[in-house]
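Two proteins were folded this term; both appear here.
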Amino acid sequence: FEENPDPKLGIVCTNMWVIGENISELSRPILIRLENGTVFNEALFGRLKDIGIQTALIRREVFDKVGGFDESFPRWIDHEFFIRASRYFFFYQIDEALVNWHAHTSGIASNKKNKFVAMKMLLAKYADDYNKPENKMLLAGFYYDIGHGLCSLGELKEGRSFLIKAIKKNPRHLNALTAFVVSFAPTIIYRLLHPM
């Protein structure tokens, strides 16, 4: 913030090491740099979801403008906040891992179903933005992610409904078409033929 006093610069973040029980991996959110403007549309479709809140320095003005965290979300609370912030403020990423995050099997991020509940909540909260004509292909991918995830969890009927939405937005979405056909098999077969 000291190097760039632009009041539109709202959030500076870094990469982080995600440390699990058996692996370590570098989480690298891909951001549009400060000089390219806001990243709202990219945020809608998940490009900011890998920013760990613990890696972010957030100006007070961001909270003043967009409010605090929406705690009604069962997961992605920070991601939803970043979506709101990205409508008005620039993000800047320091391309260095300055944080170690230890993933736990019992933490909020471990509940896979809640990920898809949160994605559906995002669709409802930002419906006007998601449904803009220029977002058609991106929305197809988002629908596919939800549908595929739900099918993988055994929620085949609801998963199929999102796969159909993906196909309607983009009839050439091969993953959605394949997942839809495979979703008529039992869940175990679905997971084997169309893994996450």
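Next, the second protein.
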Amino acid sequence: ALDPARAFSRIRASGARLPFFLDSGPFGGRSFMGAEPDAVLQFVGGKTILQEGGRRTVLEEDPFGALGKQIAAGGFWAGFLSYDLGRRIEGTPAHGIEDGTLPLMRLARYRDVLVYDHEARSWRVESASPGVPDWLSAAARPAGPLPAFTLGSWGPSIPKGDYLAAVARAQEMIRQGEIYQANFSHRFTAPFSGDP
């Protein structure tokens, strides 16, 4: 059977819009891939935004309420929920630096999904669309080599001294009984060129 990573590289090479690949690897049960979503729901800049049918609508409801309604309407949803989106549930203050470049939530609804069963080494299509979408046909076409990329050195988003001072502050708050734990994290970035 065609390897899932190779199938996905063919879908990416076809130019399909917003492809996704959830790979469980050889030890998992199933891998999923799709492209050309008919809706995108995101939470960015404090706004819940739905893009569907060529329209962009700012919704009045919170991102979880909007997502619940969209999931109830059907389709296969793939994307991400950021760690910081948890503040919408817990109501905790934000102490980190928010650069505003990434949405806190971004999920897309796919009507057609290609599923690979690693144990049976077989493929199946779950589809709500009539006919075969172009991106799905691309998975069966021959493709060239996987695209090349370069990745530079990783660096932290905050200086080491600031990080160590924040850790010391958290430790002192624990000693004083103000908090019992802290999850202090920060971003690392690296220059990248190529096709992810």
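The first helix runs from residue 4 to 13. The longest strand covers residues 39-44. These notes refer to the second protein only.
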